[in-house]
User: Fold this.
Amino acid sequence: MRKFFKILVLSVVFIIAFILLLFIVERNKKITLPAPTGEYAVGRTHFEWTDTSRIDTLALKPENPRELFMWVWYPAAKQANTNPGDYLPENWRKAVATRQGIFARFFTRKLSRIKSHAADSAKPAANKQFPVILVKSGIGASTSDYTTFAEELASNGYIVIGSESPYSTSVIVYSDGRVVNDNSKGNPGNAAPSVDRDRRLDRLVSLWADDLKFITNKLEQINTTDSSNLLYHRMNLKQIGVFGHALGGATAFRFCFTDPRCKAGVTLNGTPFGNVNENKLSKPFMFLMADPKGVPGAVQKQVSSNIDTIYQQLPPSRQWLRLTDAYHYNFSDQAVIRERFLARRNDDLGTIGELRGLEITAATLRTFFDVNLKGAPSKRISELKTKYFEIEEAKK
Assistant:
């Protein structure tokens, strides 16, 4: 009996050690994001702007103006000596690791092991104006989580501006060394009662949409007056698109609804907030949604009902698509950052394949904006559905 117990204990220890080893190997595994398909190389920089007209009400002590941090991806000149930068700069990686804590860090891939394709501060492509795409992340996430999509769009002739949301984004590291984390005002979480939580989220959507308006104003100023900026005279601000994930998708819809400068928008697995019966949008808009299998039935029914109400009022250029076997985090680089086995068990990731889901989403975003901002033939969207069998029409 004693011998059996000893064997049992050793077996359990061996199994635990083997599982831990698998997690360690997965965490340290090197992975390269899908390669951009366009004719341009991709450059990356960042901006930090302060909106002195607004006090940041999300700060624990709301007395300072709203300070925004933007990641910027742009078409760059192809140069033999242009090497990709880090997926995320080292000071950001350290701040993210501190924010995660040891336990959570163990279940994500090392950000230093993720390889992207943009070169920091690369020389912009020849003097030409490009459409602009604004990006808003899901709550808590960083717009760097959408690097795959930003690089694909930039390589195909778009300037992509991804704005962080102070006190809602988990971690922001400013150039002066300040680290700003999210708080309960900027990221209500799941603890608050549903009615109050929805009200707070709706206020966040309005705040984030105001961020996008301020950024667009600033871009207009840069484009005409700031010759020192690498985007000077390079933006076609008559062709502005926006996409966002989750609450960022709701923000994309709100921005397109309230700002005439927005010409087309996309939500990645996000639904609009507020009175959906009043949200009549006259611009091209696409809902690209997760497989319903990854969402509880009652929630899926409500989401579909809200989208349908809005979808019926959209112009003919509307799209409502689903990705088979793609769940919420398949619509961002979190698909390769998160530990996939636990993520699938928690219904955070579907079985579409981490890189496959990113590739299809990137191609779908590019095609939608090519059609609605660059005048590409609308049949390209139908061709996309033929190329990728995972794309389904949720509503025809």
